[in-house]
């Protein structure tokens, strides 16, 4: 069964008298453990779509099912709980908590959302830090880390709760090309290791081709879907 | 919960300057209240002590209607011997009463053989009077302050009268008084001392022995104007007063009204109004402190929420519930209150300690060289701290609520 199913999903914003149709009748499915990119020019609706799939916003029309849950019907509190248990987020600007160390940033969702015991938390965090190769930097605060290191910590934070789906909005936009490629390959490796589905947006052609499935958006419509089936596991 | 406070404290540390400034404001408010409460409380306590220990006593019992005519010192409202015995019986049943003493109050004429003037006299049993007013000796000038401050045949003259009539210790004076039937009698007395005035209408009275007053007024039986009472513990004044009032009310006069009336010092001394003003000023100081805490924390929390909109969006996006986001900001405001309260208490207590080392001397009315020894009790610290912490949480409520209600999608978009 598909992890994400969108049926005739539309999103319209109102700005006074003006209506802006950000997404128009989208239909698509995302399979579990797939590595999917959303591409398209600025303003084509990539972030809006990620927000809908991430239960941060609700579609104006249509049906959106994530992990078997009709997310458009979720109330505010239910949506927060759903995000905490099923989804992981990676942001363009990393969005790490500046007052917490790398270790504590990764610990945050385990403490504040999952209520995991301290000993279990420690094992989970050290494992994920090792996986993203940030074990040595675990006690550093975000302002002591480089952009690539910050995004590695953000990837670890998104994955530590073992979500089914990780959403990443332009995760490499603030990074130089090599670092960006490393981060994307790290995400793929995490997908390989943990079986987590990744859906990320980008407009960098070299990054988008790291994906196995590429959805192209234009003016709020899904105009093209490309399946790259012969890509094997990637080592960076 | 611990992690919530850990994050809250880290956020406070993140904005060090702002946290210090806000804490400083709270500290100033708390210190002001502690010092003012300490100073005003000790001033009030000292003045009440002066009034009750050297003149009024803590409570007085009279025949019904006496206090409303107290200025004229009516002898026809004296308690007869039977009434006094009834009062004695009631008082002796109260274990909290440390001492009681009978008094006769009278108005008389004082003559030094060249001039004559009016004098108000408090006739006392000296041995019992010093037990209800142990500081009375402190008011007596010239004469050695001994336990039995007056003997029969002696009189103590109020300072102003003595000065006006040039009366000195050892002089002989004549005191003439009318008794309740209107007959006049006069007796010679030796001036045993001069007494300082204290605040209130009963604070300008001269003293004589109660036996002399009975002789002067030609009393057929041992009448008493009032019974002064001192308690073992002043803090139990209201409780003991209520018990005594109830017991006394059981005795009725022929009209079926209570035969006796009892008053605490508060009803008998004008200083009570000053004490109420002091209490009002203390409340005002606390209100100012509450305003300082409220405005400073509200301001800092509103700024904190506004500056961290994206962070709030991130918290919400990754699944933090609205309740936990609210708790995080409440913890921040509460922590600010805790820091301010703790430091404010420490500095305030330090200030009280210093004021006790470098003593404050002052004059009040005709009382000179009074020394303030400020003290603050634990319950006062407890209440000040509780108020600050409650106000801190209250001030954080609106910003915290606003943070918890933010839509993550809007918050993440915030630049």
Give the SSE layout.
The complex is a heterodimer of chains A (236) and B (415).
Chain A: E1 4-15, E2 18-30, E3 35-39, H1 46-53, E4 61-66, E5 69-70, H2 76-86, E6 87-90, H3 102-113, H4 118-131, H5 147-159, E7 165-169, H6 177-194, E8 197-202, H7 205-208, E9 213-218, E10 221-227
Parallel strand pairs in A: 3-8, 3-9, 6-7, 7-8
Antiparallel strand pairs in A: 1-2, 1-4, 4-5, 9-10
Helix pairs in contact in A: 3-4, 3-5, 4-5, 5-6
Chain B: H1 2-14, H2 16-56, E1 59-63, H3 81-92, E2 97-111, E3 116-124, H4 126-132, H5 136-139, E4 140-141, E5 154-158, H6 159-164, E6 172-178, E7 184-195, E8 206-209, H7 210-216, E9 226-231, H8 237-249, E10 260-264, H9 265-268, H10 271-307, H11 309-317, H12 322-357, E11 360-364, E12 367-372, H13 378-404, H14 408-413
Parallel strand pairs in B: 3-8, 5-7
Antiparallel strand pairs in B: 1-9, 1-10, 2-3, 2-6, 2-9, 4-7, 5-8, 6-7, 11-12
Helix pairs in contact in B: 1-12, 2-10, 2-12, 2-13, 10-12, 10-13, 12-13
Number of domains of chain B: 2
Order of secondary-structure elements of chain B: HHEHEEHHEEHEEEHEHEHHHHEEHH
Radius of gyration of chain A: 17 Å
Oligomerization state: heterodimer
Give the percentage of residues in beta strands of chain A.
25-35%
Largest sheet of chain A, if any? 6 strands, mixed
CATH class group of chain A: Alpha Beta
* Approximate strand percentage of chain B: 15-25%
Q: Main β-sheet of chain B: number of strands, strand sense, barrel status?
A: 6 strands, mixed, barrel
Number of strands of chain A: 10
**DSSP strand count of chain B:** 12
Could you give me the name of the CATH homologous superfamily of chain A?
P-loop containing nucleotide triphosphate hydrolases
């Amino acid at each position: 069964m598909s992890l994400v199913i969108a049926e005739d999903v539309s999103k319209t914003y109102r700005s006074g008298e003006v209506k802006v149709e950000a997404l128009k009748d989208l239909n698509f499915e995302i399979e579990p453990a797939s590595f999917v990119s959303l591409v398209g020019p600025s303003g084509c609706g990539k972030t809006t779509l990620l927000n809908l799939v991430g239960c941060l916003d609700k579609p104006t029309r249509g049906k959106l099912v994530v992990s078997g849950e009709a997310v458009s019907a979720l109330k505010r509190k239910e949506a927060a709980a759903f995000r905490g248990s099923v989804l992981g987020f990676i942001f363009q600007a990393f969005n790490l908590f500046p007052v917490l160390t790398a270790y504590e940033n990764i610990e945050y969702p385990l403490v504040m959302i999952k209520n995991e015991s301290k000993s279990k938390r420690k094992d989970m965090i050290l494992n994920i830090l090792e996986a993203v190769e940030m074990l040595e930097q675990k006690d550093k605060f975000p302002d002591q880390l480089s952009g690539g290191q910050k995004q590695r910590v953000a990837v670890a934070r998104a994955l530590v709760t073992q979500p089914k789906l990780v959403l990443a909005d332009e995760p490499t936009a603030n990074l130089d090309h090599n670092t960006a490629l490393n981060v994307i390959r790290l995400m793929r490796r995490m997908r390989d290791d943990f079986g987590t589905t990744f859906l990320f947006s980008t407009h960098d052609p070299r990054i988008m081709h790291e994906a196995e499935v590429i959805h192209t958006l234009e003016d709020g419509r899904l105009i093209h879907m490309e399946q790259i089936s012969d890509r094997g596991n990637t080592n960076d | 919960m611990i992690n919530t406070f850990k994050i809250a404290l880290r956020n406070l540390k993140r904005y060090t300057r702002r946290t210090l400034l806000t804490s400083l404001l709270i500290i100033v408010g708390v210190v002001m209240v502690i010092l003012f409460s300490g100073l005003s409380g000790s001033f009030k306590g000292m003045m009440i002590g002066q009034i009750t220990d050297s003149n009024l006593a803590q409570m007085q019992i009279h025949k019904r209607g006496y206090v409303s005519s107290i200025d004229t010192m009516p002898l026809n409202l004296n308690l007869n011997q039977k009434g006094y015995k009834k009062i004695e019986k009631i008082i002796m049943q109260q274990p909290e009463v440390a001492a009681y003493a009978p008094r006769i109050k009278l108005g008389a004429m004082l003559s030094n053989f060249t001039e004559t003037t009016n004098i108000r006299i408090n006739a006392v049993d000296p041995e019992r009077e010093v037990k209800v007013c142990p500081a009375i000796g402190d008011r007596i000038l010239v004469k050695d302050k001994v336990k039995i401050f007056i003997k029969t045949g002696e009189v103590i003259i109020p300072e102003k009268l003595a000065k006006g009539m040039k009366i000195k210790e050892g002089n002989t004076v004549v005191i003439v008084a009318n008794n309740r039937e209107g007959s006049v009698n006069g007796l010679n007395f030796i001036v045993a001392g001069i007494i300082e005035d204290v605040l209130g209408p009963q604070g300008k009275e001269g003293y004589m022995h109660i036996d002399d007053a009975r002789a002067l007024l030609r009393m057929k039986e041992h009448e008493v104007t009032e019974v002064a009472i001192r308690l073992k513990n002043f803090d139990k004044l209201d409780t003991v007063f209520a018990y005594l009032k109830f017991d006394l009310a059981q005795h009725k006069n022929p009209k079926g009204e209570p035969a006796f009336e009892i008053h605490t010092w508060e009803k008998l001394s004008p200083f009570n109004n000053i004490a109420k003003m002091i209490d009002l000023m203390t409340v005002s100081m606390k209100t100012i402190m509450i305003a300082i805490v409220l405005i400073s924390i509200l301001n800092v929390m509103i700024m904190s929420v506004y500056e961290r909109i994206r962070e709030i969006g991130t918290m919400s996006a990754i699944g933090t519930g609205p309740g936990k986001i609210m708790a995080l900001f409440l913890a921040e405001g509460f922590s600010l209150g805790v820091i301010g309260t703790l430091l404010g208490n420490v500095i305030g207590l330090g200030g009280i300690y210093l004021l006790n080392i470098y003593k404050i001397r002052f004059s009040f009315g005709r009382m000179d060289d009074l020394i303030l020894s400020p003290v603050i009790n634990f319950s006062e610290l407890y209440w000040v701290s509780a108020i600050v912490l409650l106000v801190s949480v209250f001030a954080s409520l609106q910003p915290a609520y606003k943070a918890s209600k933010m839509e993550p999608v809007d918050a993440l978009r915030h630049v």
